[in-house]
Amino acid sequence: MTNGGEQHIFFVDDQTDVCKAVCSTLEETGFKVSCFSCGADCLVQLRSQKCDLLITDLKMPGINGLELLMEVKRLIPSLPVLVLTGYGDIPTTVRALREGASDFLEKPLDRQSLLLAVESVLNQNTQTHRFVGKVLSRSEMGVLRLLLDGKNTKEIARLQHRSARTIEDHRCSIMHKLGVNNMVDLVKQTAVVRLLDVWKK
């Protein structure tokens, strides 16, 4: 597998040897890789750097992988996340998938399995998300949630005590960032459907 573009992968794991091995494998394949030993450092960089795929371990001190996943999906709904899970982590892994993880890999990692998973997730994401990395603001997230609840522009404006023009501007921005042209496509977007599942739990 070769990386045809400038795809940037963030990798998070508190085990230094794992970070070195995975980063080396991905860089040899042609990816740009940023490694982090904790979720907090990763979140800081996500706010300022382009990222095409996040790979994170589930069990880490401080912000664990599940918490990192949930925060990332709030900040960048379309960013694919691949989670690493150890033996006995099945319940946590299932929850991670419900929270929007694209796939999971079992540790210890196998080079070929890692590369195949990365290729699969990136290919799928390229096909379904043309605006990867576009961050929705807090206001846009609020408007998006109400749109998916079936509210129209006037209803949202009344609920949020804003002008209809402001809500319409937010709606246009949301459509652009998520790469859709209408509400039907918006609901079909994988990332948005996952967010909706989280909100309705």
Descriptive terms for the model:
2 domains, Arc Repressor Mutant, subunit A, alpha/beta, elongated, Rossmann fold, 201 residues, 5 strands, five-stranded parallel beta sheet, 55% helix
The Cα radius of gyration reads: 18 Å
State the CATH topology of the largest domain.
Answer: Rossmann fold
Summed up, the helix count is: 10
Which descriptor suits the 3D outline?
elongated
Name given to the CATH architecture of the largest domain: 3-Layer(aba) Sandwich
CATH class of the largest domain: Alpha Beta
| Percent of residues in helices | 40-55%
Residue share in β-strands:
5-15%
Mean pLDDT: 82
What is the H/E string? EHEHEHEHEHHHHHH
Polypeptide structure, described:
This protein is of the alpha/beta class and 201 residues long. The chain folds into two domains: 8-128, Response regulator (Rossmann fold); 138-200, Arc Repressor Mutant, subunit A (Orthogonal Bundle). The chain is built from ten helices and five strands; from the N terminus they run E-H-E-H-E-H-E-H-E-H-H-H-H-H-H. It is elongated and about 55 Å long. Helix 4 links the parallel strand 4 and strand 5. A five-stranded parallel β-sheet has the order 2-1-3-4-5, with helices on both faces. The relative contact order is 0.12. Mean pLDDT is 82; it is low at 128-133 and 190-201. It is 55% helix and 12% strand. It has helices spanning 16-28, 39-46, 65-75, 90-98, 111-128, 138-148, 153-160, 164-178, 183-188, 190-200, and strands spanning 8-12, 32-36, 53-57, 81-85, 103-106.
